[in-house]
Amino acid sequence: MKKYHVTLTDEEREQLRKLTSKGKVSVRKLKRVQILLAADAGEIDADIAAVLGIAVTTVERIRKRFVEGGVTFALEEKPRPGGQTKLDGEGEAVLVALACSEPPKGRSAWTMQLLADRSVELGVVDSLSDETVRQRLKKTS
Description:
There is one protein chain. The chain is mainly α. The protein is 62% helix and 0% strand. Helix 1 (10-21) runs antiparallel to helix 2 (27-40) and helix 2 (27-40) packs across helix 4. It folds into two domains: 10-75; 89-140. It starts with 9 loop residues before the first helix and ends with a helix. The longest helix has 20 residues, at 56-75.
């Protein structure tokens, strides 16, 4: 016996069907729509998962999200945690200016690690990796 039963109203069902015929819907959202429509039609989780090529736990999770928060909650992505950027706009400007300046004595050019180390020495950031420097310089060039 399922704990979370999906019972769509006629309006919700129509809204979901329209999403399936739309041209610009993400694959994740489309799968969630298909899960809800199949669950509403009485399909069991294992069958839904097999047809859509997903895990049964995904079907269960979407059912639960629908019951707890409705259609919109079930279809939308949860915010994903991400790391804070080390360099803000001002820090990035300092990095670019540093990269465009004369390299240290005894060097013919700046390396990513030298730029990272110099940014830390100047107090722009507490720590900085050479990969972050590379990505930021690639973005600005």
